[in-house]
Amino acid sequence: MADRNPLEDHHWYSVFSKGYKTKVITYSIQRAFQESLGTEEDYTDPKWPPYTAPPIIRTFSFPKFFRMYDLPFKRAAPLLFQELRSDKWNIDDKHYHNQFKQDLTPVGGLGFSGSLFFFTEDHSYIVKSVSRRFEYTFLYTQCIEAYGHYMLSNPSSLLCRMTDVLFCFDRHLGGVLGVSPSHYVVMENLLKEMDAEKGWVKWDLKPQKFFEPTRDLIPDQIKTQQAKSGLADAMEEDRIILTKKQKDELWALLKEDTEFLEEIETIDYSLLLGRFPISQNKDLKPSKFKHENWITGVTSANGKYIYRACIVDFLWNVNQLQAKITRTAGKLLPEQTVTTEPGRYRREFLSMVEEYIVVSEETGTSDSRLDS
Predict the structure, then answer these.
(1) What is the pLDDT of residues 120-152, one digit of tens each?
(2) From the CB of residue 44, how many other CB atoms can be counted at a distance below 10 Å?
(3) May I ask the CATH architecture of the domain 196-359?
(4) Which pTM was predicted?
(5) CB-based contacts of 130: which residues, under 8 Å, 6+ apart?
(6) Which of 23, 68, 121, 127 is most buried per CB count within 10 Å?
(7) For residues 121 and 29, what is the distance between their CA atoms, to the nearest angstrom?
(8) Alpha helices (runs of H) in the chain, residue ranges in sequence order
């Protein structure tokens, strides 16, 4: 963590600077990791339970209200996430906390709206803001507890590994103006070594059979690059080349995970898939690990590539008010990923993944769709 407090080293007009905003927000995030987690007996405040999500109780203090970016974040369900990190995912606690003693790097620059993303020092973790009320309401009222129990019982799950959640329920000026998020999720970065020059490719896959207004109504010639980047990917001619055993193992995980997501009534999630050629990334071969899995990497059946995958963005719960409004308004249009029902979304999601998989029992064989 930087020695100099950015709050003590600025001019009044710095508040309008993106650089100042970045420094103060990252300083606030880092500060949350300085406090020792302690034991269950140390948590006497009912507003900050150790194993469950905090109750959403908004507080107001006149002096605190004028905070713009400097927020007193706390870690939600801190001992639950510590148990997941240490006991289920074998994350080294010292390395993890050291990541938050170094500068955080904003991804794609910081504007004054939208979600904020930061990489930790070695890109092992992503810190993402959760700014939409219906998403963080679902996160605290249902998701954290359900997710925690599920992941404790299913440590090999393909759901992205949330390692911490930071919250601040104090009303503050930055929140009113929409320039300073009050909630962040820390996630393990599945593709931390990603390097396009070494042949890495990634896809953010959602079912393509649903109607997508930006994709389906606006001609490609007039779409902005920002609009295109917001669309879910399609694999086009590429395919995931697996052995039958690999496919069966993947399918079992996907069926179980999506059944859980259907039970908590969430939709619009996607499969984050990364692929890199072994020939250009020999130091990342899964053989260096105890066994292959979709987090450390699975070798393609043709022996050319390594795949990594996880399910991300599962905070769109159909019972939240904004989701209900979106679904009602969306009835004027064909069915979309944000207006469908959880069961149907799950079926289309699994169908999409199955379509992208090609089974090949012979290792070393080639598939032209992957050789492009």
Answers:
(1) 999 999 999 999 999 999 999 999 999 999 999
(2) 6
(3) 2-Layer Sandwich (3.30)
(4) 0.86
(5) 115, 136, 139, 181, 183, 184, 185, 315
(6) 127
(7) 14
(8) 18-32, 62-65, 78-83, 93-98, 133-138, 144-153, 173-176, 213-217, 225-229, 244-263, 321-329, 342-356
